[in-house]
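re: ur question from earlier - yeah i can do the single chain one, its not a big deal. heres the input i used so u can compare w yours
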Amino acid sequence: MLALLLVGCSDTVPGGKKVVTPTPDTVVGKLPKPTQTVGDPAKGKPLFVATGCGACHVFTPAATTGKVGPDLDHLAAYAKAANQGTLPQFVSASITDPGAYVAPGFPAGAMPGNYGTSLSPQQLADLVAFLVKGP
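and the output i got, formated as tokens:
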């Protein structure tokens, strides 16, 4: 009986040898859809302030005037220049992997901390929503 079961899950490779695979080639049924966390801009604003983003970045919706990092009022232009996906994708990647794209005139590696590991998925989504949509 086991031999019949294995025959259904095997393939022949050059040389006539059989290779047993642990999974079928075809999936029957529906695959689960990946969940995407929806951000709340209203929760993103206090997070922006609490994490100290405004100390380095200008961002008018948060009334911040930092000059060390890129001016976040121009995120759409940076996203277009980076050509790395949608504006929310670009903003999320810029927070979790700030070295992926560095705005002209700013040094690589200047953004402190690893926000990709220090923020929960919900916090990240809230912060991105605030940066993309404002309050």
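The mean pLDDT is 84. not sure if urs matches, ping me
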